[in-house]
Design brief:
Layout (H helix, E strand, L loop, with lengths): L1 E11 L5 H20 L3 H9 L2 H10 L5 E14 L9 H68 L31 H11 L7 H9 L1
Antiparallel strand pairs: 1-2
Length: about 220
């Protein structure tokens, strides 16, 4: 491997506290070490000269402070053929990446298979529901035909009603017999006066006058 010394320059939009500076330095160190562990020497140089490493630093530092610029201002190759026992080797890093990629593909395939299985089940349920609807429609049609046949038979059995002829009833002519005039001459004077008094008429005079007054 290679022993390389990198110096970064991070510029923020405003002045920051010392504690935040320490956090920025620690995060920058972790990002650079992680990027270098996954890269060859040529890829690391390309990342420093391009914007890949700079964008990785900005993205990692964004939650801490607003960063205007983050670059590797100086790099120095200190030693070649270095063997480091601590940490993963480049081959181990590549193997880990391949394993992670394979697991992601397996999860994607399983999810796709599950989705297709659900679609097949829904299609089967739709077909069953369609068959049930057709059967129900046939039952309804049969019931309607049976009802129509029953109503038709009932209409044929019902005799035609004919209006009854109005019976002519003899109209009895009311006849009123006129009552015979009462014979007032047979009444006494006292009886005549009583009737006149009841009728609110004068009671003075002779019998003939009283009779005439009652007949008025």
């Amino acid at each position: 491997g290679y022993l390389i010394r990198l110096k970064t320059l991070v510029i923020t939009d405003r002045r920051i506290q010392t504690s935040i500076k320490q956090v920025i330095r620690a995060i920058s160190k972790d990002i650079i070490l992680g990027f270098a562990a996954k890269s060859t020497f040529a890829k690391l140089q390309k990342g420093m000269l391009g914007s890949e490493l700079e964008e990785a630093l900005k993205e990692a530092l964004k939650p801490i402070s607003r960063v205007r610029s983050a670059v590797v201002r100086k790099s120095q190759l200190m030693q070649e053929g270095v063997v480091v026992e601590d940490g993963p080797t480049l081959d181990e890093v590549h193997q880990e990446e391949q394993r992670t990629s394979a697991e992601a593909k397996a999860r994607k395939a399983a999810a796709l298979e599950a989705a297709m299985s659900e679609e097949d089940e829904e299609a089967g349920e739709d077909e069953d529901g369609k068959a049930g609807d057709e059967s129900e429609e046939v039952d309804i049609l049969t019931a309607a035909e049976a009802l129509e046949s029953t109503e038709k038979g009932a209409a044929e059995e019902t005799p035609e009603e004919t209006p009854d002829e109005a019976a002519e009833e003899p109209v009895a002519e009311e006849t009123t017999d006129s009552a015979a005039d009462e014979d007032l001459t047979s009444l006494t004077v006292a009886e005549l006066k009583t009737r006149l008094k009841s009728a609110g008429k004068p009671v003075s005079g002779k019998k003939d006058e009283l009779i005439a007054r009652l007949q008025e």
